[in-house]
Fold:
Amino acid sequence: MGVVGGEQAHQADQHTLLALARQAVERAAHGRPRATESPASQSAWLCTPLASFVTLTTGGALRGCIGGLYPSVPLAEDVQMHAYAAAREDPRFPPVQPEELEAIQIEISVLSAPEPLVYLSPDDLLRRLRPGIDGVIVQSGSKRATFLPQVWEKVPAPEAFLTFLCEKAALAPDAWRTGELEVFTYQVELFEEDSPQSFTT
Structure:
């Protein structure tokens, strides 16, 4: 954004999305059906179809993460849908319980459109990746997986990053070296609650 007013408006939209995500997580934790709240702000950003991931953490440890790679609904609805799912449907974790809500912190990643990454060889692929900047998708046939850019903080080496990502996609760990692998990259706009329950309403 080029002007202060625009930046403030965008920050207000971020806060709106965090509040909507918090409501969805609370609804999920109490076993209530998912519902889509219409935000008071009808800004173009909130109403634009965009893809998002919602990540839940407790004390810095992952507690749930669900999202989509391609947009299908307005961003405000997408965030609510994935916040609810992160609290109840991440197969790695049991559903979030009401007593956990106070400690849970919410992080939202809004994705740019994935772009194919053209590479000539495994070494070329490693050179073209941008640690800390790019989210990465690997795909072979019907098998696909992604790591958000935040994963680079824990796995900074491109070789290990791709190996773990191939394993996540149920591919051979060295599929990025030996097979026909489609690779896509994207970037995210990342924002999170200042502290747990900051945006509870």
